[in-house]
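Module 6 notes. Inverse folding takes a fixed backbone as the condition and produces residue identities as the prediction. Think of it as a translation problem where the source language is geometry and the target language is the twenty amino acids. Below is one complete input and output pair. Work through it position by position during the lab.
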């Protein structure tokens, strides 16, 4: 009986292993988010209208591109489990097929982004904001492929626990993005001031740098898997299985960002100030979210390796460690949002009306922080196990069947406006977190099995 806790509860070694991987991944996630923060802060100094245009533009871009990102995150279980099982061929196939999928995904995603003007008009967004929002989106379209290629390289390097090249790339991209924003948004060094459009060009340029630089600095690690074409690279059934595994991840991410995005569109019915305040509060909440998101990525890798080794006890201990770290940080972040909303709001804008509304929204974000951390860490744990379909159903029920009706009722029916819309998000996040934690416990009780991609397996290897 005395040995039982060490078998199932996280030890210091488990927490240490998770934190060593999670710390740089958190830095990477925060660095990626900081690009958006810099865009928002710099454009926010131009006008509330420009800030609202960037909010709508980023929303529209990510609703589509994040599906492609989610599909490619199928590489987490594929590559991590293959590394745990010491299956180098499966790693090479995973990386190369991921790059093939970036090309297949780029065209439809780019075409969908061209629908921005009629869609934003149809959902009755402020007429003064639409031209800049559409221009912003059009200038982000060339960044779709490098964004997806970066995701493939990042997931591969993460699975190898090689995070230094990703950190270096994110730092360089942030420096470039900040410099180009300063020059193109405000019109420095002889350039014309482009406002929101200049920010879009800065982001697109920085994403091309991210893809090229990560390939260069990570070449030593990925070169063995790219030096020769993997057997059966373009096998249609294998690619279809990757899509079957990754598409639910993409759908789950779209459903989640879609819930927040729908609230942003509903804010547009209330006015420009509401859209801008929503953007500021959501930007801050998204920044803290990067920490449990990094923990989630680390959990997917650690659990994936354990599955590849057939280590059920390691899966359970890593699960406990990830949930403790993710929820613990978000508890601290929530306290900051509740205690200092005015200070945080003034970092983004000097518009008194936007600040006043942001101060009302941030404490609500403080309430849902812990649940947001628990749900995203749970998704990473399930992804490491190869379970990608249940989170989709969970998001449909939690966000769309429960949270969204509450948002609409409180925001419009009860007359609470922006504040009411955000309380609906709290309901959705609480329900999603509870459902996913239950699913994690259920999956841990099953026998471990590697993700099957290729038909013809070598003895003892399920994926080949």
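Target side of the pair, the amino acids:
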């Amino acid at each position: 009986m005395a040995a039982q806790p060490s078998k199932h509860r996280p030890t210091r070694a488990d927490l240490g292993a998770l934190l060593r991987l999670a710390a740089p991944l958190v830095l990477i996630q925060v660095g990626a988010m900081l690009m958006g923060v810099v865009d928002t802060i710099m454009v926010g100094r131009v006008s509330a209208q420009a800030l609202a245009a960037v909010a709508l533009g980023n929303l529209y871009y990510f609703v589509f591109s994040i599906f492609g990102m989610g599909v490619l995150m199928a590489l987490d279980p594929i590559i991590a489990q293959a590394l745990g099982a010491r299956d180098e061929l499966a790693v090479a196939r995973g990386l190369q097929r991921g790059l093939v999928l970036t090309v297949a995904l780029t065209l439809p995603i780019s075409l969908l982004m061209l629908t921005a003007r009629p869609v934003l008009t149809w959902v009755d967004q402020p007429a003064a904001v639409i031209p800049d929002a559409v221009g912003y989106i059009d200038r982000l379209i060339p960044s779709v492929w490098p964004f997806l290629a970066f995701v493939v390289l990042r997931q591969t390097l993460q699975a190898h626990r090689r995070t230094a090249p990703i950190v270096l790339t994110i730092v360089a991209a942030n420096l470039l993005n900040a410099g180009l924003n300063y020059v193109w948004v405000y019109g420095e060094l002889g350039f014309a001031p482009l406002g929101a459009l200049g920010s879009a060009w800065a982001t697109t340029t920085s994403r091309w740098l991210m893809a090229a630089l990560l390939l260069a600095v990570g070449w030593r690690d990925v070169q063995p898997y790219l030096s020769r074409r993997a057997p059966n690279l373009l096998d249609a059934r294998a690619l279809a299985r990757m899509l079957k595994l990754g598409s639910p991840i993409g759908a789950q991410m779209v459903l989640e960002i879609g819930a927040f995005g729908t609230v942003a569109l509903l804010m547009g019915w209330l006015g420009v100030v509401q859209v801008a305040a929503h953007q500021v509060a959501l930007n801050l909440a998204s920044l803290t979210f990067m920490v449990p998101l990094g923990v989630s990525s680390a959990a997917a890798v650690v659990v994936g390796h354990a599955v590849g080794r057939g280590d059920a006890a390691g899966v359970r201990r890593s699960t406990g460690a990830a949930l403790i770290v993710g929820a613990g940080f978000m508890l601290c972040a929530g306290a900051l949002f509740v205690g200092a909303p005015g200070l945080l709001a003034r970092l983004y804008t000097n518009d008194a009306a936007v600040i006043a509304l942001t101060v009302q929204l941030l404490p609500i974000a403080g309430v849902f922080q812990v649940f947001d951390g628990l749900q995203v860490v749970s998704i990473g744990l399930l992804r490491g196990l190869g379970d990608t379909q249940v989170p989709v159903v969970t998001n449909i029920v939690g966000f769309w069947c429960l949270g969204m009706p509450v948002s609409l009722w409180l925001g419009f029916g009860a007359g609470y406006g922006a504040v009411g819309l955000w309380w609906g998000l709290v309901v959705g996040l609480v329900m999603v977190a509870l459902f996913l934690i239950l699913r994690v416990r259920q999956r841990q009780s099953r026998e471990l099995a590697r993700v099957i991609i290729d038909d013809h397996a070598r003895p003892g290897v399920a994926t080949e």
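Reference fact for the lab report: Residues 1-5, 457-464 have pLDDT under 50 and may be disordered.
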